[in-house]
Amino acid sequence: MRIFGKVRHRPSASWRQATDRAFTLIGDGRYEDAGALLTRAADLEPWLSESWFNLALLHKFRHDWEQARAAGLRAVALLDRGAGAPDWWNVGIAATALQDWPLARQAWQAYGLKVPGEGAPSDEPVGMELGSAAVRLSPEGEAEVVWGRRLDPARTEVLSIPLPSSGRRWGEVVLHDGVPHGERITAAGPSYPVFDEIELWAPSPVPTWVVLLEATTEADRDALERLAGDAGFAAEDWSSSVRLLCRTCSESRMPSGEGEGEHLDPHDHSEPGHPGPLGHRTPGDLWVPERECGIAAPSGLVRGLLDSWVADSPDTRAWRDLEEVC
Predict the structure, then answer these.
(1) Which of 25, 56, 195, 315 could form an S-S bond across to 71 if both were Cys, CB 3.0 to 4.6 Å?
(2) H helical segments located in the chain
């Protein structure tokens, strides 16, 4: 088989059988058995970049970053194409996980991305200005999609306040995959990809609290979110920001604000009349004063924030049942 003037060896039937069987095992979570088959395939066809790409992919699934980097480098050494090869993207993820910044920079550039910040003390890729994205935390467990700021192609800083079931906190940086699973469309029009988390890259020291608010109006609720933001932390009204979706809906192209108001969102599988994690729909435009709110703030500050919020309008605001949940 001739590609771009080069003769490329066609993989043998044994290679294809071993590879196909390995990916079936990967789908069943049997990584050790799959690894043995993919290693055999690489022994059969060591000159095929696909042999090493597949091994790098397996090691990524296992979070074995040293092995993923080694196999990825063998894959890119055998490439017969220029920029844009997914082999380089996998190398970039492995290098980022290992904080091997020179290799991460090389990988993103080889993929075809512009990487500013060269010459910084750590040579860490900075200032890539990749904008906002959504990340699916714990994709194999109680998955939750949150908003964040992309630091580079493989890392996002979480800017939402995740529910405690995710085990994640506001301000954490997560390593994520490069192929989006789903999309969120904002009211303003732009759409944002949803990337699956691979693992926690940098933890946050800021705990998550849940509190029940009495907020007479939306403006009262908004005032708490502004107060927390001005202090350098965050508050989020889970009663209006959370909706429950099945996996198929979550991984589809979804309007990010759908489900609000009187109409019934066919994708929202929560129960009406229950705020917070159980649903957020209310009849028509009726505002429900009792709100379940997540707050990301240090323990020495959170009560002061809430008391200051109440003090600004004691007739329309109150709080109770503050609890640290993550």
Answers:
(1) 56
(2) 13-27, 31-44, 49-62, 65-77, 86-97, 101-111, 218-230, 238-241, 247-250, 299-312
